[in-house]
């Protein structure tokens, strides 16, 4: 089996998105361009007491020069997530990729982007890419339905609110499962919002679309079940990625 080429990721910038969540911006030292399809992932490499470790992380950006972004949570006893969250700007590590098939369908149809937690990472890549060029999203209705417990865990909100302001065909819905009284937005789980969106569409338009789902297994399963059983979707129209 041939060795996968590995590259060096140089950390340019770190942003804390919440007490447990980091946004990391890397550049690839060996390349002038790092090409990938939005939604793909990279496999980061590290040594832990002589043991080679690999972890896959969805890229949280669309292609720009030789750069890519990651969005991740610190996991209590997780070696890899803590190592990444503790990196300082200027540090480097090895990776290979891009990998994966969690990518937008071509041709693009009306689409539901459904995410919870750091499952927002590939959705940020999709939205950046789609709305960078009018021809990529023309005449298509795109919904981003994002679910989390508390308002402080709504990541990349500004980007999505800005995009929704500029493009009437982009609908950004945040739903909180443990919102306090001051929260004006949607409440409950993402699948409740998905159901409401589909029910608001004309009957023939309810299945003529695709869904892209990213998050923990229970959420992914609940939405796949809803789309297939309640709305009669073909499973080919449901693209998903789980990270547990």
Please give the order of strands in the largest beta sheet: 4-3-6-1-2-5
How do the SSEs run, as a string of H and E?
EEEEEHEEHHEHEEHEHE
Count of structural domains:
2
Structural class: alpha/beta
Characterize the main sheet.
6 strands, antiparallel
Query: Which CATH architecture of the largest domain would you pick?
Result: 3-Layer(aba) Sandwich
Radius of gyration: 18 Å
CATH class of the largest domain: Alpha Beta
CATH-derived topology of the largest domain: Rossmann fold
- Quaternary structure classification: single chain
Assign an overall shape.
globular
Question: Fraction of residues in helices?
Answer: 10-25%
Uncertain stretches of 5 or more adjacent residues: none
CATH superfamily of the largest domain: Nucleotide-binding domain of ferredoxin-NADP reductase (FNR) module
Number of helices: 6
Attribute tags:
single chain, 244 residues, alpha/beta, Elongation Factor Tu (Ef-tu), domain 3, Rossmann fold, 2 domains, six-stranded antiparallel β-sheet, six-stranded parallel β-sheet, 6 helices, 23% helix, 34% strand
């Amino acid at each position: 089996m041939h060795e996968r080429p590995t590259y060096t990721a140089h950390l340019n910038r770190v942003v804390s998105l919440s007490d447990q969540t980091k946004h990391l911006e890397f550049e690839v030292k060996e390349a002038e361009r790092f090409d990938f399809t939005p939604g793909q992932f990279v496999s980061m490499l590290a040594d832990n007491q002589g043991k080679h470790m690999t972890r896959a992380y969805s890229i949280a950006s669309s292609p720009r020069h030789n750069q890519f972004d990651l969005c991740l949570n610190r996991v209590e006893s997780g070696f890899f997530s803590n190592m990444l969250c503790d990196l300082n700007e200027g540090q480097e590590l090895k990776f290979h990729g891009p990998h994966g098939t969690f990518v937008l369908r071509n041709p693009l149809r009306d689409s539901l982007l459904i995410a919870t937690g750091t499952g927002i990472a590939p959705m940020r890549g999709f939205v950046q890419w789609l709305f960078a060029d009018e021809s990529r999203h023309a005449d298509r209705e795109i919904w981003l339905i994002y679910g989390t417990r508390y308002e402080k865990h709504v990541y990349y909100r500004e980007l999505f609110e800005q995009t929704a302001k500029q493009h009437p065909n982009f609908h950004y819905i945040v739903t909180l499962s443990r919102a306090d009284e001051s929260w004006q937005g949607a409440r409950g789980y993402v699948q409740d919002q998905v159901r409401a969106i589909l029910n608001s569409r004309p009957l023939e338009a309810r299945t003529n679309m695709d869904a892209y789902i990213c998050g923990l297994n229970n959420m992914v399963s609940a939405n796949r079940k809803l789309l297939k059983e309640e709305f009669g979707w073909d499973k080919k129209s449901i693209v998903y990625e789980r990270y547990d």
